[in-house]
Amino acid sequence: MKHFEANSPYARDIGAVVHPHTNLRVHLEKGPEIFTRGRGLFVYDEEGREFFDAAAGLWCASLGFGNERLARVAYDAMKNLGYYQIFRGASNGAAIELSERLLALAPCPMSKVLLQCSGSEANDTAVKLVWYFWNALDKPEKRKIISRKGSYHGSTTIDVCLTGKPEFHAGFGLPFPGFLHTDMPYYYRHHVDGESEEEFSQRLADNLERLILEEGPETIAAFWADPVVGGAGAVLPPKGYFEKVQAVLRKYDILFVADEVICGFGRTGNMWGSQTFSITPDIITCAKALSAAMQPISAVLINERIFEGMKIQSDRNGRFVHGYTYAGHPVAAAVALETLKIYDETDMIGHVKAMEPIFLGGLAALNDHPLVGDVAGCGLIAGIEVVADKKTREMFPASVGLPAKLEANALKHDLILRHVGNRLAFSPALIITEAEIHDLVGRVKASLDDTLAELG
Ligand code: PMP
């Protein structure tokens, strides 16, 4: 029950808060859902109603909600130093240890770490580093960046240019010129009849090469990709995709930036999505599960080649002219370090690997459902494509408002489901147990059944 009388939290929210990714006018009528606490995979509203969150917030609360151990670490770090900057050579123990730890965990040899505060800042910084690097090598014309349609890379002005979703551009006059978008590797929806996954991957790699040649290889600085396309609702790369794409990039000396903001730290069944899909990036951006979402922190990992270029440019400029007040924040870094310790102590990767067949098997059983066209995932990330016609892959017209209907029906089963377009995206906390997976799948099935009944 919502209380809209003056001074209720609902009325105060409507009066004061602008919510991201929310229709502003509808929100004035409908008001917020207010959550007051969480435990494990569950969050609770003001009346104590319990909800299963199938997406761990925004793919991030990897250890679940509420965490005593991380709270103590944050408390101690705040009491001890609380804050200091890392500008002009200053440092702190947590920032040093976290950077070392990230280099030790990296999926391929990496040389240095830049600590930031969010996935968006990490990608924005990485774009600047790419430009800085090619300028250092006296190739200022190597400036264009290629990412994929359907991808999401953050909300700063530059991240929105990387993002390959028109709805993020509309109304803002973006993207800026020089940001190009190639095909999304979405086999289920975009393959032609009779085309194998390998053939589809080859076609996409050929399209990428054609784009590079049309634009001029000497103008292309970097290729940006998240191993699993979160922005498209957890779309997995088809067989051979990254192998073929990387061969093209190597041919034209184009940097590979892996956006591991969702995939990093176990989500795909390995520490990095780059390991799951055999990617050798020059730069990695990561965030979210780095601190189990308990503190805003992210990182950019760069290899030695990039760092060599940065040194040249920093000599020219007098110093490396970039940085945020909260970069290397000692409280956030301490929480991230402790999170990585927890992953290690509890063998989180082993747990994800053990849960993977149960999770994917449970969701795959929904393939028989009349509304389900495709189920695909790895580790503890998966997408379910909802269709009007299983055979033709035809989608429901937007007027049916299907994903929203499904989300509403899920809420009746106390399940928070997240859709991206026509795909339901699943990224539960990595600590999920076998019993919780069965519980989750049961609630998803019930939500699909209710929606089917509603559609008649
Ligand atoms: N990259 C990817 C792949 C993401 O999914 C996100 C956030 N969902 C970001 C970047 C941006 O991260 P943040 O919201 O922490 O700025």
Give the SSE layout.
Layout: H1 9-16, H2 24-30, E1 35-39, E2 42-45, E3 50-53, H3 56-59, H4 68-80, H5 93-105, E4 112-116, H6 119-136, E5 144-148, H7 157-162, H8 166-169, E6 179-182, H9 187-190, H10 197-215, E7 220-225, H11 241-251, E8 255-259, H12 273-276, E9 283-286, E10 298-302, H13 304-317, H14 330-345, H15 348-364, E11 372-378, E12 381-386, H16 402-412, E13 415-416, E14 418-420, E15 423-426, H17 434-455
Parallel strand pairs: 3-13, 5-6, 5-7, 7-8, 8-9
Antiparallel strand pairs: 1-2, 2-3, 4-10, 9-10, 11-12, 12-15, 14-15
Helix pairs in contact: 4-14, 5-14, 6-13, 10-11, 15-17, 16-17
The chain binds 4'-deoxy-4'-aminopyridoxal-5'-phosphate.
Description:
The protein folds into two domains: 33-66 and 347-455, Aspartate Aminotransferase, domain 1, CATH 3.90.1150.10; 70-345, Aspartate Aminotransferase, domain 2, CATH 3.40.640.10. The chain is globular and about 65 Å long. Helices cover 42% and strands 15% of the residues. The two termini are 29 Å apart. The protein has 456 residues and is of the alpha/beta class. The strands form three sheets. A seven-stranded mixed β-sheet has the order 4-10-9-8-7-5-6, with helices on both faces. Strands 1-2-3-13 form a four-stranded mixed β-sheet. The protein is built from 17 helices and 15 strands. α6 (119-136) packs across α13 and α16 (402-412) packs across α17 (434-455). 4'-deoxy-4'-aminopyridoxal-5'-phosphate is lined by residues 58, 118-120, 123, 152-154, 226, 230, 259, 261-262, 287. This is Aminotransferase. GO terms for molecular function: pyridoxal phosphate binding; transaminase activity. Keywords: Aminotransferase, Pyridoxal phosphate, Transferase. InterPro entries: Aminotrans_3, Aminotrans_3_PPA_site, PyrdxlP-dep_Trfase, PyrdxlP-dep_Trfase_major, PyrdxlP-dep_Trfase_small. Belongs to the class-III pyridoxal-phosphate-dependent aminotransferase family.
